[in-house]
Amino acid sequence: MPIRPSQHWGEATEGFGHECFGVRMWLCINLFSLPASRAGLLLPLLPLTSPSFLSSSFPPRCHRLQDSLLSSASGYSNYRGILNWCVVMLVLSNARLFLENLIKYGILVDPIQVISLFLKDPYSWPALCLIIVANVFALAALHIEKRLAAGSMSEHLGAVLHTVNLLTILCFPALVTLAVTSITPVGAVFALSVHTILFLKLFSFKDVNMWCREKRQAKAARTRSAAGSQKANGNVASGAVAYPANLTYRDLYYFLFAPTLCYELNFPRSPRVRKRFLLRRLAEMLFFLQLMVGLIQQWMVPTIQNSMKPFRDMDYSRIIERLLKLAVPNHLIWLIFFYWFFHSSLNVIAEIMQFGDREFYRDWWNSETVTYFWQNWNIPVHKWCLRHFYKPLMKKGAGKWVAQTGVFFASAFFHEYLVSVPLKMFRPWAFIGMMAQIPLAWFVGRFLRGNYGNAAVWISLIIGQPIAVLMYVHDYYVLNYEGSQ
């Protein structure tokens, strides 16, 4: 039985005109007489003016509810092109500054001059002698620990001898630097840095061996059996070094040369030396070292020299201008030094010694607080402070704020020690700069977060260091040059 066409079908086909009426009727009759399955395949192809077509596709829509791309509500986060633009602008602006420097001063890079920074007298090498003498303190610490392990020395006497040895490590090179006139500031910085590292390493060496003795004594108090004694000495067959078998020259000097400040009886070791990796890091060391020396001679030294007159005249506008001019090369050299030391140099040492723990730094560049920066930019020092300073203070009942202040105080002392003693003048600028990190850390952590906190950290790094550099250079210039004139 044929199906009658619906009312809306006739209305939809009205617009074709009377001249197509016969064709229209023929199509309708034949379509509605077909089976439903076949008719359903043909119907969507015919009604070009049907309401469903008009409502969904005609006319085509080009607008929808949406925010502008740079609005925070848009959720857009791919700014790679803008980052590339910033890099291009940075390169171009610094290229202009470098070209201006060459036109104004000429080529000032002199590799031979670097040697004079270490050697004032070619027949007197006091800095090298100080580094060689450092072996005496290391061997003294080893023999003290051997006596303590054997039980032939009391813990109290051992603690006193260790304290004297550690204090001598810091005081002896400082006294020699102040007394010997032939030692240069750069050579003194290098020698004092070696002794500071030795101080931190031997402090850790003392603590870890003391913890091993305490553990051995605690186990011995619980059991006196032979099995308990073997367990206390560790599983020697497994290849791991156990106390007191670690008290050897080989073990001590491996630790002294390893890129870490925290002592362990068994360090993680890499399976082999990767020659290609080692050669790449060596090439980076040589290249970035030359680059730093060239930038200091060509860019920083003239800027610092030209900053002395505004300091003498107390011309504050010129002082600020010189400070900002010095901030760019100083920060660039600091970034290069970070990569050269923490990535290239420490990885070279670790690869040669097959030292497995290569976490020398973390993502400090993403720091949103000052505290996060200091915890992540120098991991060897952070681990030492956490293990041998912060946690022991907390165990003794000190509060968190007191322990953090103590860590900053110790860091401020060593910063001042490595600057004032080589320059042979005592100015507290480095100490004040480090202690100023405490209120800065509180302010940034309390009021600034996210990108604002990260920007505050970067500003403190870019501006803070040039201020200290100018203060020390000005005082050194006044003390050594204006006074002699």
UniProtKB/TrEMBL annotation:
Keywords: Acyltransferase, Endoplasmic reticulum, Membrane, Transferase, Transmembrane, Transmembrane helix
Annotated GO MF terms: diacylglycerol O-acyltransferase activity; retinol O-fatty-acyltransferase activity
Residue numbers annotated as active site: H415
Subcellular compartments: Endoplasmic reticulum membrane
Topology of the protein relative to the lipid bilayer: Multi-pass membrane protein
Record Pfam families: MBOAT
Keyword match DNA-binding: no
Location (main, coarse): endoplasmic reticulum
Catalysed reactions listed for this entry: 1,3-di-(9Z-octadecenoyl)-glycerol + (9Z)-octadecenoyl-CoA = 1,2,3-tri-(9Z-octadecenoyl)-glycerol + CoA; hexadecan-1-ol + hexadecanoyl-CoA = hexadecyl hexadecanoate + CoA; an acyl-CoA + a 1,2-diacyl-sn-glycerol = a triacyl-sn-glycerol + CoA; 1-(9Z-octadecenoyl)-glycerol + (9Z)-octadecenoyl-CoA = 1,2-di-(9Z-octadecenoyl)-glycerol + CoA
InterPro entries in the cross-refs: Diacylglycerol_acylTrfase1, MBOAT_fam, Oat_ACAT_DAG_ARE
TM ranges: 123-144, 156-176, 182-203, 282-301, 332-352, 401-423, 429-448, 455-473
GO cellular component, one term: endoplasmic reticulum membrane
Pathway stated in the Swiss-Prot or TrEMBL entry: Lipid metabolism; glycerolipid metabolism
BP GO annotations: triglyceride biosynthetic process
Top-rank lineage group of the source organism: Eukaryota
Family: Belongs to the membrane-bound acyltransferase family. Sterol o-acyltransferase subfamily.
The protein's assembly and partners: Homodimer or homotetramer; both forms have similar enzymatic activities.
Record protein name field: O-acyltransferase
Organism of this sequence: Podarcis lilfordi (Lilford's wall lizard)
Native organism taxonomy: Eukaryota, Metazoa, Chordata, Craniata, Vertebrata
